[in-house]
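As the next step, I selected for study one protein, both as residues and as discrete backbone shape codes, as given directly below:
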Amino acid sequence: MRQLDPTSAIMLHLEGSGHHHNLMSVYFVDPLTSTSADELTALVEARLRNSPTYCARLQNVPAALGNPFWVRDPEFAVENHVSTGVVSGRGTWRDACDDITSIFDKPMDFSRPTWEVHIRHGVAPCERFPVGASIVIVKVHHVALDGLGLVQFSLRLFDTNPNTGLSPIAADTPATHTQPAGPCAFLARLSQALPAKPPPLHVT
């Protein structure tokens, strides 16, 4: 288990105080070979499943005696993290921006791993985009990844070789998340981070 660092814990505690600490990458891509929700979900699963972030969620410490820990979500389902559809309205640049803003503003569900992939088709052709272009939106919470981590996580989805298929990308680092532990295990893990003997008090 890996404990949430103090800076990330502050962002977690401030969540819901009028703003959200979400991060997002937006990619406009050439027309996809398939718009099937099942096939696109399978693609996301194949490309992201070796990332330590893929199935890790936060587990609170009993009695709030410390920062939460990252654990493996035993009820993880990739379908809860991937959405597909068409750009709203007429598919214009403004419609696409409205969809992106709406996705960004929605708070994350902390009972699940804090990442989402949204794929939208039907972008109206203009000087910016070719006919049939799609949008790939990758959203994470800052407690899970920073800006560089988001880029590295997002780029797992893409490949310069059109013949690669659904081959998974090798993990950057081995996953260290374990199954959720009981209260005693969390308290034991927390105690390891505390000093074995409190420092002496000097009275002046």
